[in-house]
Amino acid sequence: MPDLQPQDEPDLDAGSEGCPFLQFDGPTPYEDYVHASLLGSLQRPLTNDPNEPAFLVTTQVMELWFHLIVHEWRTARDAFAKDDFDAALDALARSCRSHRALNGCWAPIAALTPAQFNGFRAAFGNASGFQSTSYRHLEFLLGDKSRSMVNAHRGDPAVHAELEQALSSPSLYDEVLGYLQRRGLPVPEQVLRRDLTLGYRPDPGVEEAWRLVYAGPQHDPLVRLAELLTEVAELVLRWRGDHVLATRRAMGARSGSGGTAGLAWLEKRSVRPVFPELWTARSHA
Ligand code: HEM
Description:
It contains 14 helices and no strands. The N and C termini lie far apart (55 Å). By secondary structure, it is an all-alpha fold. It has helices at 29-34, 36-41, 52-81, 85-103, 114-121, 133-142, 147-151, 157-168, 172-182, 189-192, 204-215, 221-251, 263-270, 276-280. The chain has a single domain (22-131, 170-284), classed as Methane Monooxygenase Hydroxylase, Chain G, domain 1. The protein binds protoporphyrin IX containing FE. Protoporphyrin IX containing FE is lined by residues 58-59, 62-63, 109, 112, 117, 128-130, 132, 135, 243, 246-247, 250-251, 256-260, 262, 265-266, 269.
């Protein structure tokens, strides 16, 4: 390694060539763009418990990722509706990268003990991720629709209206299936004309469509689409699985702050299918 002499060190002082701008009339452009102070001001723990800040920040950061992934899945859905395959795949690929980052967010709170969780749990009362509207938008985009999940937000008219709209809009998967049909695959008509407000149910005709995709050339762009959707599904299942594990570690089988039975309820929810025929079609490859 070459010896670095003090005189060789780059001069980072203000005023020297190549140094950053250090003076601004008012907030920095960074602050104007990122709103870092606003973000910081939103972390308001309710206790002095040393574990609560990590819990709150983790939840808030996950909410930001939820919002971004909702945006990407809507972008992909709308692009499929317009037969813009490349834009749809780009959005799906971006959503996978964001979802991987979302899944990495569990680390700070994955190993809370019941004693540590109880140190601040009572302070947030009946608050629960169960009430997250962005999470419901994510589920609806996957095709996992539920009217009762919308009704839970009646008390907040703007949020309720947005969820109502999402309930009756095509999901990402609906638009993928419409696209496959326009590309000549045998997606049954009744699947495309189903009542969109109901949760998606697996269909043998759709399974056959995916089987045909995988039976064709492996470099076909539709195989790339199938694999990206499978990646999305896997990332969703992994997030749910890590949520169940964190919950089991932090509170065992106690009931949830949102009013459910807790772990048993979450375990059942965590295995709800995501793009079901993409998994079952694999048995017929
Ligand atoms: C140790 C930490 C956590 C525990 C013990 C926990 C526990 C629970 C429990 C028991 C439920 C069931 C609903 C209820 O009765 O409250 C639930 C639901 C939920 N939680 Fe968490 N949670 C934790 C962290 C998080 C974080 C960081 C998020 C991120 C936003 C989150 C998001 C959700 C969501 C979206 C649901 C609804 C799931 C569904 O509808 O299938 N949770 N959680």
